[in-house]
Every structure is written in C-alpha cells, then in structure tokens.
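Fold this: C4-dicarboxylate ABC transporter permease
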Amino acid sequence: GIKGVFLLKTLIPAFCVLLILQSLSGILRLLRPEADQ
C-alpha cells in the first residue's frame, strides 16, 4: 500500500547515499593514505 511505496521512496535514496558516501570515503582513503595515521 502507501506505506510500502513511502518506504521504497525513502529507503532506496538513503541506501544510494550511503553507498556513495562509502565509495567517496574509500576513494579519499586511496588518495590520502596518510590521513588514517
């Protein structure tokens, strides 16, 4: 019903944002390995 559509419309973008943030942090870690020390 409406709840399912609402969950899909909110969870999917949030999941995509999390994936993008994780990939960005991974790229930053590769570019700047000294930042972890």
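Residues 2-31 form the longest helix (30 residues). Helices lie at 2-31.
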